[in-house]
Specification:
By secondary structure, this protein is of the alpha+beta class. It has a single domain, classed as Gcn5-related N-acetyltransferase (GNAT) (Aminopeptidase), CATH 3.40.630.30. Helices cover 26% and strands 37% of the residues. The longest helix is centred in the middle third of the chain and has 16 residues.
Length: 87
């Protein structure tokens, strides 16, 4: 069974987490965090920040904040986030 999917786009100055979806039955067990940690390691290795957007009222906002992302802005629909490796 397919658990979900992820799309990461490599840009010149950052990595962009374009999509991260997990089936509801697969959520809450640490799978999403594990995927984000792999992508964060890729960003760390590339020495690039990792950016994404989440819908303004989505529970994903809390998830990304718990994963260490900080809000960098927002618009009518989305909240913009960035994660940078320490050091």
């Amino acid at each position: 069974m397919l658990a979900g999917f992820v799309v990461v786009r490599v840009q010149a100055d950052h990595l962009y987490l374009d999509h991260l979806y997990l089936r509801p039955a697969m959520q809450g067990g640490g799978r999403g965090r594990a995927v984000v940690e792999i992508i964060q390691q890729e960003a760390r290795d590339a020495k690039l920040p990792l950016r994404l957007m989440a819908l303004r009222d989505s529970p994903a906002n809390g998830f990304y904040q718990r994963c260490g992302f900080r809000m960098t802005g927002s618009d009518e629909w989305d909240v913009h986030y960035e994660w940078c490796a320490a050091g």
